[in-house]
Automatic annotation (TrEMBL):
Signal peptide: none annotated. It is an enzyme of class 3 (hydrolase). This is Cytidine deaminase. InterPro entries: Cytidine_deaminase-like. Transmembrane segments: none annotated.
Length: 134
């Protein structure tokens, strides 16, 4: 099980990388058990920004490893609690590359670590038009 505070101090690393203000970070688990992390960099032009998990997804591609779990966290400011974010639609599409059983942490009222499969997040996925079932 992946927890917010497990796997090599990812939250501490995130806090050091983004010591103040709003920040976001992601942790992605691969089929071999590797935990890949990435952040949402601050950019001068919002059109240049990327979702916080993109770096970890690209690292998984570079390593030729399938992603099994994806977790995104954000906070409003230093000292604020971390909030779990459901992947945006584009990042859900990125996860489809590794299959419908990939699990993503989702936003919920209690801010509990809760994973749903891509199949659960995308019950009406467009691939059905091509005769594919997620």
């Amino acid at each position: 099980m992946i927890t917010v505070h497990s796997r090599g101090g990812g939250v501490k690393k995130y806090a050091r990388a983004l010591p103040k203000g709003w920040g976001g970070a992601a942790a992605v688990r691969t089929e071999s058990g590797k935990i890949l992390t990435s952040i949402a960099p601050d950019t001068k032009n919002d059109a240049l920004s990327l979702c916080m998990e993109v770096g970890a997804y690209l690292e998984a591609h570079k390593l030729n490893e399938a992603v099994t779990h994806s977790l995104c966290l954000c906070r409003e400011d230093a000292g604020c609690k971390y909030i779990i974010l459901t992947p945006c639609g584009i990042c859900q599409e990125r996860l489809v590359h590794w299959g419908s059983s990939v699990k993503a942490a989702v936003t919920n009222e209690k801010n509990e670590l809760l994973f749903k499969t891509i199949r659960e997040l995308q019950p009406y996925h467009w691939s059905a038009v091509n005769g594919e079932i997620l």
